[in-house]
Amino acid sequence: MRTELVSEPGDADRPNEDFASVGLPASGQGGSVVVLDGVTPPKNGTGCLHSVPWFTARLGGALTELTVSLPDTPLADALSLAIARTAEAHASTCDLSHPRTPQATVVVARWSPETVEYLVLSDSALLVESPDGVVTPVLDDRLSLLPRSALATDALVDSTVRNREGGFFTAAADPGVSARAVTGTVPRREVRALTVLTDGAARWVERFGEGDWADCFQLVRKEGPQALVDRVRTLERADTARTFLGRSKTHDDATVVFVEF
Ligand SMILES: [Zn+2]
Q1: Dist. CA 149 → ligand 1 center (Å)
Q2: Single pTM value for the model
Q3: Overall fold of domain 2-260
Q4: Ligand 1: distance of its center to the CA of 102 in Å?
Q5: Among 111, 119, 163, 165, which has the highest number of CB atoms less than 10 A from its own CB?
Q6: pLDDT tens-digit profile of 15-55?
Q7: How far is the CA of 63 from the centre of ligand 1 (A)?
Q8: Ligand 1 mean position to 49 CA, how many Å?
């Protein structure tokens, strides 16, 4: 099998808030990929002493370990355990009930000789390619279904839709959020390869409209994850009129993982 992983910060002066790992246990029978996109905190505080990279390293590290050490535990349960373990690491020093407590989007895929399981929470993307080349995106599209007005400002997002019923959900300090994730299982024989993207890389499709998910998959397959990130950076630099970027930051952390069985 082949795995390739690229993760780049949007700004060289700020730490990368994405996390990515591929776990290949010694049994050689399966493995997992974990990708998180940490939510950038507001300047007026999160109730937490720690940085977003501190949070994503703990949550992503726990998820990587639990998905391969507990192969029979469903991914949603593994996510609950990982959130609880991470919360425990700072419950005594930080206010985990704060609405902006550190949080992240989550994509996990785990494979065995028989199956490929997946879990998607919030707006990172998992692309699944079948042996005949059909690409199926697995998306948690709650965020895109919200009215644009609800997303106008961070403050409004906090008070109305973040981790609230009818809104969108990220992995923060509540283990129960895993029940909100999009999950599923497909036979391994129906999967040839996977690509996972954080929204900073998915901009190639979602913002710039350079192609659809299948085009994006083919680009990653042929030219590699770095080529996709490089193309996004070129498009971002060229959009000086902000036709596509609007009020979004020019560059976002961008992570791409490609796994071919
Ligand atoms: Zn903390």
Answers
A1: 31
A2: 0.92
A3: Phosphatase 2c; domain 1 (3.60.40)
A4: 8
A5: 119
A6: 999 999 999 887 778 999 999 999 988 888 899 999 999 99
A7: 18
A8: 5
